[in-house]
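Sequence in, structure out.
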Amino acid sequence: MKKYLKIILNIFRSFSLPIFSFTLSILGIRFFGKQNWGEFIFVLTIINFFAFLGNFGNKDFLLRKYSNNPSNIVTYFSSSFSSRIFLLLASLSLFFLVPNAIALLSILLIFLIYTYQSFDSLIIYQQKFLPQLIAEIIGFIIIVFWFLYDLNFELSNLLFAYIISYAFKMIYVSISLKNEIRLFKFTFSIDELKKSFPFFLIIFSGWMASKIDVYIVNFKLSSEEIAEYQLGISAFLMLQSLSYLIILPFNKHIYRLQTKSIKRIKIKLGFISIPIIVLGTFSIWILLEKFASINLPPLFYFLGAFASIPTFFFIVDILVYYKDKKENKILIINLISTFINFIFTYFLISRFGIIGAITSVLITQYTILIFYKFNLIK
């Protein structure tokens, strides 16, 4: 019973951040309007990029090291955190993109996000799922109350709200990990970055394959369109992520199952994907049109629904590739997908706007599906 409770808590923990982020976007548009929220999203997207750059592959890399040598967990964590923190120096480029005051607040937020996310490996290994879930809930409530208190839009105030939220989450989670944190020692190691680089390539390429359209939208469309697209694509990305959450409890079994058994799992997952996509798309339409009132074209929902289907059909294939130690093939597919998404988004967005961006996502998703199903990377 305890085992299943931890699985459930982990699923809620994993899904809480995108759910809360999506909800905050809806509330942000309602409180501050699409144009103002679009300006904030522009800055927040850049902030998340730099935070991700600092933590690339950190979780998976450290989990493997913890498992091989549990007695050196603190040493591994300290070395990784200390070495990667220098990657955050790239965020100084924000002074060339935004006003100085906004850049300073953004850099502080990047550091807090980096620190908070760096705890992921310890949280998963020590199975501290409940403290992080509580931290996410309270962090979400802090920002909501800030929205209610500060009704006049000010970019610096919004950044400060997120700083308070992440500072609380970082402190709360660090208390639950006090046994590891109190022994922390600052130790820089260039080898740490070199050894984790393969993890960076796979995770960063996959992240860019799914996010490159968002960054192009940030620089090509108006603030209102940025807010609309960010909200719409976030909703459909969450819908896609359901495929992973459904298969999550069976991940470890896939590494031991025979081909026939894995094929049955693929068929069942594909079979339930259609009702999930239909119900999910209808729910997204209700939320965005009736509650958030963002007025996206009906074609956006149609394309978003069809773009969400492929993930349910290739998510197991990705796990099988990992099982067969074919990570390099995953990397190549991700890189090709990133290139395709970039090219199509760049050209289609100029002519069709938001519809062009979601069309590019659709093309990219089915390209990935074709690569996995036909084993095109030899």
